[in-house]
Amino acid sequence: MADEKTYSMIKPDGVRNGHIGEIVNRFERAGLKIERMELGMVSMEQAKANYAEHEGKPFYDGLISYITSGPVVKMVISGPGAVAKCRSLMGATNPAEAAPGTIRGDFGLIMDENVIHGSDSPASAEREIGIFFG
Ligand code: IDP
Ligand code: MG
Fold first, then answer.
1. CB of 63 closer than 6 angstroms to any ligand 1 atom
2. How much is the pTM?
3. Which atom of ligand 1 sits closest to the CA of residue 87?
4. Does 52 contact ligand 1 (Cβ within 6 A)?
5. Who's near 67: CB < 8 A, 6+ residues apart?
6. Rounded to 5 degrees, what are φ and ψ at 84?
7. How far is the C-alpha of 134 from the C-alpha of 120, rounded, in Å?
8. Cα gap 82→119, rounded to integer Å
9. pLDDT of 52-95, one tens digit each?
């Protein structure tokens, strides 16, 4: 399978709770490559672009203020099937339902603070890498 790129981001709770090293380790242990990595804030413009598909939903305003509330770790990750592999390491969106052994299952409790973001398709990955790394 050809190498693929995905965008992943350790969200403010993951950074605040000290899980950067463990999460990066899980991606590397799975054989994925960290191509780019940057600790910093998400701008309001980046947040709105990244979550455009959720505009108008009840959780949208909270999601935008949460993702801009503190530093995150922005990453470009590559490898065969990187998009799906990242999503599988992340676990289900709701940490209450995410399997133990997944990032959200191990480090999260609630949907509003679910530790990590990952692109849901190669097309989303390309769009999101553009938003965060230009
Ligand atoms: P994903 O992050 O697993 O791709 P999406 O459905 O794309 O999940 O939702 C984007 C983000 O919006 C989620 O990671 C979560 O932080 C937040 N979110 C989604 N649904 C809800 C909800 O019902 N309540 C609160 N936050 C939500
Ligand atoms: Mg999504």
1. yes
2. 0.97
3. 3
4. no
5. 11, 12, 42, 47, 50, 51
6. -70, -35
7. 19
8. 10
9. 999 999 999 999 999 999 999 999 999 999 999 999 999 999 99
Q: Which residues are catalytic?
A: 117
End-to-end CA distance of the chain: 26
For 121, residues 6+ apart whose C-beta sits below 8 A from its C-beta are 83
Q: Which ligand is nearest to the CA of 87?
A: 1
- What residues contact 85, with CB distance under 8 A and at least 6 apart? 30, 32, 79
| Distance, CA of 55 to chain centre | 18
Signed CA dihedral, 110, 111, 117, 119: sign only: positive
What is the chain's alpha carbon radius of gyration, rounded to the nearest angstrom?
Answer: 14
pLDDT, tens digit (0-9, with 9 covering 90-100), for 2-24: 799 999 999 999 999 999 999 99
User: Amino acid letter at 14?
Assistant: G
